[in-house]
Amino acid sequence: MSRIFADYVEKARHILDENWTGSSTKPAPSLYPHQWNWDSGFVAIGRSHYDTSHAIQEIETLFDAQWSNGMLPQIVFNPEELGHYFPEPDFWQTDRSPHHPSGKLTSGITMPPVHAIAVEKIYQRAPRRNRVLSFLEKIYPKLVALHEYLYRDRDPHDEGLVYVRHPWESGIDNSPTWDSLLKRIVVDKESLPPYKRRDLEHVSDSSMRPSDDDYDRYVYLIDLFHRCDYNEGRIREICPFLVQDPLFNSILCRADESLARIAEIIGTSPVTARDWAQKTSQAIQKKLWHEKHSMFDAYDLVQGALIEVDTAAGFMPLYAGAATPEQAEQLYQHLNSCSFCSLHQGNCFTIPNYDTQKEGFDRSNYWRGPVWININWMLAQGLRRYGYTLKADSLQKDLLQLPIRFGFHEYFDSFEGTGYGSDNFSWTAALFIDLVYEFYEGEQEKGRMTGYVKSLFSEDLILNNGNDTIGIDPDNIAGELMRSIRGLRNQFYDTERGIVDYEHLKNSSEFRTYRILTNGLRKFNPSCLTGRKEKLAFWINLYNSIVVDAIVTLGIKQSVREIPEFFRKVRYAIGPYLFSADDIEHGILRGNLRPWFYPFKPFGVRDPRRDLIITPVDPRIHFSLVCGSRSCAPINYYDQASINNQLDEASESFINSSEVIVLPEAEKVLISDIFRWYSEDFGRRRGILDFIFDYLSDEKDRRFIRTHSGTLQIEYLQYDWNLNR
Ligand code: 2M8
Fold it and tell me: Does the CB atom of residue 19 touch ligand 1 within 6 A?
């Protein structure tokens, strides 16, 4: 793990420890002094990586305050901390409900149900899973009761969509989505119960919090719940705020999936949870999709209409897998528009909570524009789920950068990154930990190989030794092969997302043709390639396709690391010689330079393949060679006529992805291991920094590199060998 990440994980853990009350974690040291519902879920996810027992206790403490009807309260009050927050138990008067838990002080509303997701993660990451089984068995019925409550009490028309009845239930309190609904509520100040806001005592700037008008309406709704004695049927009849929100329902749907898997682990039936997930997913897809906006919107049950306000909540169906591929593509386009920061838009840190082009957008006001870590954390997973790997990567890069550069704040300025709200905010710390651990632990896991695969690969594997050469024109093998590779690219490579559809490629006629053509390589004389551009294009394309060919032929599931010495052992016979992927890369394309992991040059002094090497080395090749992994460049087909521009594009895309993180405050740049391995090709430190400077699009970052090139520290990011599937 890079030192800087290790240091910040340490800081994040310290924040969680400081916010620990003895039985749970408060969201922030003073602004939120009690236990919050979804905050605890996120905290447990962070802790699950290194402290199973506290993660379990976090969830258990919360569920100890579950209502008898299954509702999990938004706040569980700490009796020792009363007097610093509004509204507290005296204001909620939850004892009016027969369902309130005796001996516990809680609010009378709920929040997005992330808990089954957290519980599943606790189990998955526990060092001794069997020890966590009894927790799973104990918590499972409580999770079921929560989901049952939501589907029973909050989904009156049995649609698969549940409603929230207070902006605080959504978690995105003063989101612009609620404006029109709250405006409908005419507040008579005289009849409103008197109250005093406490939140403003803890923040430096009240314009970064909800307005007083908002608070009047929050209080109006609580008063309405009192009048109904928290009876859901009665509330539903008169409540002016009943909304089916895409964020809440997507989290529920994603949590249903976890619940089903937990059921399987403890040996009970997953069917109900699966049915819930399917029903909610379908309902989100159909009812909450706004065709004209190409976005998911909340549905106002009182007016019977979609609320035409696009916020980050509208992307959350990606997290639940509830969007169709077509909807996902439209969401992706929307994410990459200036409304929500285009892919490499300078100075924009991940997704702001509201469309930056809309009048009410406010970069520093709470849920009206700033960047929130939890929302982006879910979004990154959603994007990955649909294969938008590059976008997910760049989002995660920003998520890692924000706390390192600006502190573990509650929310962040969408353009400058400045931290706002409370510092030492628990879910920012917890989800930062999750991001770092997910990446590095996943890495270790994938590095392990099974004995079966090891034995499979004790010998070299020549991929093109088939007999079928029917229809091959021996004089034009290179041309035909390149055409075939271009066909594979058009059909199965997603150059935008940087992924390969291995499943469909495998059984396609195009791939069969490609493999037959590779048999023809045995009769091909590579010395007949003329000109640097033709050679570069041929060998880059061949390298990329031998890797794809090997992944498919060997049935690699997770990572090329399943096969020891993959790049040295997979080979094509070309003319009288054998070429491994390494021979092509280090021998030919790098001008016979020693690979970083090996003591010798690929071609010895008398090796005739030396005649084929291409010099001088163009370092841009490193962003065109696809090694079948997530950290390498997105796959493409290289055309000799435009190879120069293509190599520039590949370099630009890589330099502006999550593989290069500039941290001016820490006087550091974190860069891909590729630069360490091939430092020589770039011209060592000076050359690397010049190269990055040339392709970086963020002006501030460029300026920093220019002015600090002599002093800044370079750290290397560990390579992600997960398959670019
Ligand atoms: C914020 O909400 C509370 C009310 O629940 C508040 O403003 O007092 C929101 O950001 C919410 O999502 C979060 O759970 C809570 C505690 O962090 O603070």
Answer: no
Residue 207 and residue 364 in contact, taking contact as beta carbons nearer than 8 Å: yes
Residue nearest to ligand 1 atom 12, measured at CA: 171
- Which two structure tokens, joined as six digits, stand for 333? 């386009």
Q: Give the model's pLDDT for residue 132.
A: 94
> What are the residue ranges of helices labelled H in 304-367?
317-320, 325-335
Which positions ≥6 away from 375 have C-beta within 8 Å? Answer: 172, 247, 312, 313, 316, 351, 353
Give the residue, out of 24, 107, 173, with the most ligand 1 atoms within 8 A of its beta carbon, to mutate for a pocket test.
Answer: 173
Which atom in ligand 1 lies closest to the alpha carbon of residue 172? 12
Per-residue pLDDT, averaged over 133-145, amounts to: 97
Distance (Å, whole) CA 200 – CA 186: 24
Residue 33 near ligand 1, beta carbon < 6 Å: no
Calculate mean pLDDT across residues 661-686. 92
Positions marked catalytic: 173, 410
**Predicted confidence (pLDDT) per residue in 266-317, tens digit:** 999 999 999 999 999 999 999 999 999 999 999 999 999 999 999 999 999 9
What is the structure's pLDDT at 552? Answer: 86
CB 400 within 8 A of CB 2: no
Tell me the CA distances in angstroms from 248 to 78, 110, 313, one per residue in order.
26, 11, 9
Q: How far apart are CA 139 and CA 237, in angstroms?
A: 33
Q: Give residue-wise pLDDT tens across range 328-337.
A: 999 999 988 8
Residue 647 per-residue DSSP state: H
Q: Are 94 and 103 in contact (CB under 8 A)?
A: no
Which residues, including other chains, have CB under 8 Å from residue 30's CB and lie 6 or more apart? Answer: 84, 202, 422
Confidence (pTM): 0.74
Distance 671 CA to ligand 1 centre (A): 36
